[in-house]
Batch of 2 targets.
Target 1
Amino acid sequence: MKATQLAEGVWWVGAIDWNLRDYHGYTLPGTTYNAYLVVGTEKTVLIDTCYPGFEEQVLGRVASVVDPKTIDAIVANHIEVDHSGGLPKMARMLPGVPIYCTEIAVKGLGRHYDTQDWNLQVVKTGDTLALGNKTLTFLEAPMLHWPDSMFTYLAEDEILFPNDAFGQHIASSERFDDELGKDASLSHAQKFFANLIIPLAPKVLKKLDQVGGLGIGISMIAPSHGVIWRSHAGDILQAYTDWSKGVSKEKVTIVYDTMHGSTDRMAQALADGAMDGGLEVKVCLLRDGRYEGCHRSDIVTEMLDSKAILIGSPTLEDEVLPTVAGFLSYLRGLSPGLLAQKKIGFAFGSHGGHGGAVKQIGESMQKAGIEVLGDGYEVTFRPDADEREACYRAGLALAERVRSL
Ligand code: FEO
């Protein structure tokens, strides 16, 4: 296997995980664990490693450039196991090799591995590592993605290694954004942002400001997952700014489950009203993700660029249906209210007894930081023609509201 060259002396030496389909509840078409080798005139450095079990791929690609035993130092930008899992093998292979990371990473690595014999070197923002003709500069980036995270910048080649930030979960033979295609690269990045970065959006905006204030050139962004941004670095930076600000389209995402078709009829009428009102509409039937494009991780991706989200459920034993309850739990965790521009929401559903699901959905959406319109709409048993008409009109009214934002 071969490494892929980014610039003179800079190589992708990561691993491809073709078979991964679920990553803590996020569906994905495989992923990559990107590691990079920077070969300077005086020192050779490995930036990040891989998930445990993928070390042979990393070492094989390193070996296509240099003897792995000549690695002088390792940079651990982030301790999550998909990037640090190769460290135990590397530390055994390279006894005493300095591993540069943040102070929080030292503690975190000690909780994951037996680091007693590791040569962990704490770095802070602005610290540098000279490799001869190249210099690495470190920039702490707490919570992007974990408290330990940091970015590494290679000044001479204007390459930023931001670990998870700007990543995408995609396994492919393409290594660069122009090879995979701009739209596909941004689309995978949108799903990554929606499922992992939304709660961190305020920190993203601050970090982008901080990086912008440094006045450094960024010709290439080499994240720890997916393709490397060499042709569209400006586009992914702008996309992160827009997504963090909550910039969205005149679009509504309607998500629901149904027992005997009543909540489904309401969803269809709401969708008709919203469409006739001029909105782009995405309808997602929650069935434990068995409908293509309707897994919770796909739905929040649709939600990210929607101005509104409508959520529906019948009442089952005085509760929201479990499929919808699971989605609401995921939504509350992501906290889309942290996006600078708030989304608006509406709850709907049906019941054959006391009802209550609609109220619970509205409360959950409020906890997620969504601006909920009114008390929602709940019908008894089947929605009749008047009630379906009311749903249609609610869709029209929502469209008018969305288009006025
Ligand atoms: Fe790709 Fe936070 O790990």
Note: The chain has 13 helices and 24 strands.
Target 2
Amino acid sequence: MDGNGRWAKERNLPRVAGHRAGVKTVKTIVQTAIETGIPYLTLYAFSQENWKRPKEEVSLLMELLDYFIDHEIRSLKKEGVSFRTIGHIEALPPHTLEKVRQAVASTAENRKLILTIALNYGARTEILDAVRKLLREAEQNPAGGNGSHPLDEQKFSSCLYTAGVPDPDLLIRTSGEMRLSNFLLWQLSYSEIYITRKYWPDFGKADFLKAIREYARRERRFGDVRAL
Ligand code: IPE
Ligand code: MG
């Protein structure tokens, strides 16, 4: 979800106004995902690296997360959305953390849309956390006996924060930036990438549907010569 700051700057507004406008886009896109029957949607809201921003901006982003949970979770719950997070959420301000945990717990049974929000997320850290988990398992079970699974891609994936969620079919990046910014490095191996110049606050339902239509036209070969 990129381009909030530039959207605001173009309007001579403070960056925070861009983030506020960005929350509206989140609602629209989540709603469109529900209507379209998309089963998994993952939003990159706050990276590990975003702590470097001025503390006022970081605080406002946290407040917007509070606001989103306070105002949206009840209806998302009714619509069958499971609210989840990836990333080190324990570093969030305590009251925000509490809200996040409640939102996750109260929607845990839902299956219509798995909505994952990346918060204090970094893909390299996620990969290192998976390696640490595997090392701990190996220490506890040195002979590789009882119940241990050989280390293959499936096993490794099951140690990532996204365990149980399929790899993304489509990555959408707004605001024209052409980089991954430490997002889902393992999971995006064969994802289709769609980059739009639109800033996140301007990215609407029609833009999302256009990205999905373009995705539908892509030929995915996964290294083979024929499309799958
Ligand atoms: C939103 O856009 C990203 C976050 C919510 C952290 P930016 O804040 O990165 O906007 P630009 O890149 O300055 O335009
Ligand atoms: Mg940015």
Note: The CA atoms of residues 173 and 195 lie 5 Å apart.
